[in-house]
Structure formats: C-alpha cells, structure tokens
Amino acid sequence: MGTLYEDIIDCGGEIFGEEHLATLRECVQCGKCTGGCPSGRNTALRTRKLMQMALLDMREEIFNSPELWFCSTCYTCYERCPKGVKVTDVIRTIRNLAAKEGHMSVPHRMIGVYVMKTGHAVPIGPDQMKLREAVGLDSQPPTAQKHKDQLEQVQAIFKATHYDAMIDFDWGTMTLKGMDKGGKK
Ligand code: SF4
Ligand code: SF4
Questions:
Q1: Gap between the Cα atoms of 4 and 1, Å rounded
Q2: Of 51, 119, 150, 154, which is least surrounded by CB within 10 A?
Q3: Are residues 114 and 94 in the same domain?
Q4: Is residue 185 assigned to a domain?
C-alpha cells in the first residue's frame, strides 16, 4: 500500500489511465468544484474537501466519510475545474478503494441487493406493471427480472467477482447480512 494518491493512480489507472487520475496533483483548492456541485447544495458533500483529503493522504478519514457516497457522478465538477482535475473519476476511484476495504455505504450496497435479486438497480414495481398492462403490454419487459435463467447469469457474475462478499450479501435472506428486506437493521 502506498499513499492514497499513489493508490488512486494504481487502482483507477487500470480503468481511466494513470495520467487521467494524476491530474489530482494539479488541484489548487479553488473551490469551483464545490461551488457547482448539485449534491453539495443538499448534503454535506464538499468536493474541494474530498480532493484536499486525498492529497493529504487522509485515507481513514475519507474512507469513513459518509459524504464520499453523496456524489451523484453528474460530472459538473469535472467540467468546471480550471485545472483539469478529473474530479468525478478521482471520487469514483476513491470509492472503489474504500469499498475494497469494507467501507461501501449501505444505500450503495442496497443497489447491489436489487441487482442480485432482480438483475436491475431499479427494478420494475407493481405500479409500473399495472401501467404496462393497461396499455396492452406484458407486465414485465423481457429482462432478467422476468427470466430466471438470465437472472442466474447476473448472479453468477456477482459470485465470480466476489461482489456478494464485498457488500456482505446473504444468499439465504437475499439481502444484506443482519438486515431486513428493506435494508434496515
Ligand atoms: S475545481 Fe479543481 S482545482 Fe478547484 S478545488 Fe476543485 S478540483 Fe481543485
Ligand atoms: S460529480 Fe459528484 S462531486 Fe462532482 S459536481 Fe457532480 S455530484 Fe458533485
């Protein structure tokens, strides 16, 4: 394990390219990312602060920050940064590192539960099924939610990549370990 900056380059470099993420070192703490962040208007997310914490090697603090998970990955900061810091992709990489060390937020883990159970991050619900029937369609489109064999393929990917273990998924209850079906303890 290197510094957090080095780990961001190593981990995210495989996906985005090392130079892409190395733009983090150009951050001058101007705050333009925070100023345009739609999520930051309604939450404690302060994008500039996340960049500062990453550069100051505040690994434990940033991995344990709930605000790390408040980013909606809208890429506004990415477009606004005057120094060309690839802010959103830095945040996504920090999340990947945090998740590998068991720090993924419960709402994000619950999205994994939906995918595990239905094949979709946003599964179709009873109201949508009724609407579909009202206009003469099958209640469900031909996706993994309807076809068990396809859902099993999705679940096989999760098992092969150990994503189930990463989010602490319980195959017996089909939700997170220690939680009820609504994701509550
Ligand atoms: S806009 Fe760019 S340079 Fe300014 S604080 Fe955010 S990441 Fe740093
Ligand atoms: S990508 Fe995330 S941090 Fe950047 S502006 Fe959008 S919500 Fe804010």
A1: 8
A2: 150
A3: no
A4: no
- CB-based pocket (< 6 A), ligand 1: 27-33, 48, 51, 81, 83, 85, 87
Q: Is the CB of 50 under 6 A from ligand 2?
A: no
State phi, psi for 183 to the nearest 5 degrees: 85, 20
What residues make up the domain containing 138?
106-176
Residue corresponding to tokens 């609504």: 182
Kindly give the confidence (pLDDT) of every residue in the chain, 185 residues in length, as a single tens digit, with 9 standing for 90 and above.
Answer: 789 999 999 999 999 999 999 999 999 999 999 999 999 999 999 999 999 999 999 999 999 999 999 999 999 999 999 999 999 999 999 999 999 999 999 999 999 999 999 999 999 999 999 999 999 999 999 999 999 999 999 999 999 999 999 999 999 999 999 876 555 65
- Helix H or strand E segment including 127: helix 126-134
Contact 110, 183 (CB under 8 A): yes
pTM over 0.85: yes
* DSSP H/E element including 169: strand 169-170
